[in-house]
């Protein structure tokens, strides 16, 4: 009965829209945390008790996160990863650094905020990644609201830049162009990009392994993932361009400098080490 109630309940999204609660999507989000199926089932049943018509999706998220956090620190980070990347704002520069770190992780040397000459005009490229004679350019699209999607206009614009850069003096080794975002792409944007060979990194792209999946795979967790790291400390560290959890492991002096106690640092390192296992 509880499960049927969940499936038949209308919920209110963050933008005010009303939609039918999807058990399939809910269970999928639980499985993607890496939790054992037994715990996923337990959490589904527990959340079912809280569901009622008109409940906000934010309240469902908060209740689910609370239950996951009691079970596994790593699963809690995975469940809230989309939110953690959103909190790298409000400007897009830190997200550009984050994207650069991803490309460094897979073997590239990166440059952030580089100007390249196209056939006709100059272009400022958010991230340039180079490996031998292979160059990748990345356009980063950071949004402060998770519901903001990247539509066909964005990929058309990036395609025109790609065409101009490929034919310019700085495009000799340009092999791939990416759009990286902290949100998702519309269906048209996905179809068009796939058709022309434009690479996408986002919540729903690539289709076989999304950007979120790649972040988990390479353990590139942003410091905003650390629930025991106070927001004021987090902001200080981001100003120092320390954006990954792994960045903090040898930065005890900086953590002390911004005001963290020995106990806070010990707890923080406990959580980071669990994530890095």
From TrEMBL:
Domain AF1548-like C-terminal: 221-275
Pfam family, one: AF1548-like_C
Transmembrane domains' residue ranges: none
Protein name: AF1548-like C-terminal domain-containing protein
Species whose genome carries this gene: Bacteriovorax antarcticus
Lineage: Bacteria, Pseudomonadati, Bdellovibrionota, Bacteriovoracia, Bacteriovoracales
């Amino acid at each position: 009965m509880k499960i049927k109630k969940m499936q038949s309940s209308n919920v209110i999204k963050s933008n005010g829209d009303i939609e039918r609660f999807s058990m399939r999507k809910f269970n999928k989000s639980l499985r993607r945390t890496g939790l054992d199926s037994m715990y996923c089932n337990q959490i589904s049943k527990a959340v079912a008790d809280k569901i009622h018509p008109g409940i906000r999706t934010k309240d469902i998220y908060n209740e689910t996160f609370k239950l996951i956090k009691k079970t596994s620190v790593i699963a809690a980070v995975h469940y809230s990863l989309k939110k953690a990347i959103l909190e790298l704002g409000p400007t897009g520069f830190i997200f550009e650094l984050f994207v650069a770190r991803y490309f460094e992780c897979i073997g590239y040397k990166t440059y952030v905020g580089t100007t390249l000459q196209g056939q006709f005009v100059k272009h400022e490229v958010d991230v340039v990644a180079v490996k031998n004679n292979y160059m990748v350019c990345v356009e980063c699209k950071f949004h402060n609201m998770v519901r903001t999607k990247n539509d066909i206009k964005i990929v058309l614009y990036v395609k025109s830049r790609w065409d101009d850069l490929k034919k310019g003096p700085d495009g000799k080794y340009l092999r791939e162009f990416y759009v990286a975002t902290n949100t998702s792409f519309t269906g048209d944007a996905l179809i068009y990009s796939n058709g022309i060979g434009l690479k996408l990194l986002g919540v729903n792209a690539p289709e076989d392994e999304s950007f979120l999946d790649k972040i988990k795979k390479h353990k590139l967790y942003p410091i905003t993932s650390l629930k025991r790291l106070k927001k004021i400390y987090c902001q200080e560290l981001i100003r120092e361009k320390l954006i990954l959890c792994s960045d903090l492991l040898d930065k005890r002096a900086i953590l002390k400098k911004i005001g963290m106690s020995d106990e806070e640092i010990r707890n923080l390192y406990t959580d980071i080490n669990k994530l890095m296992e």
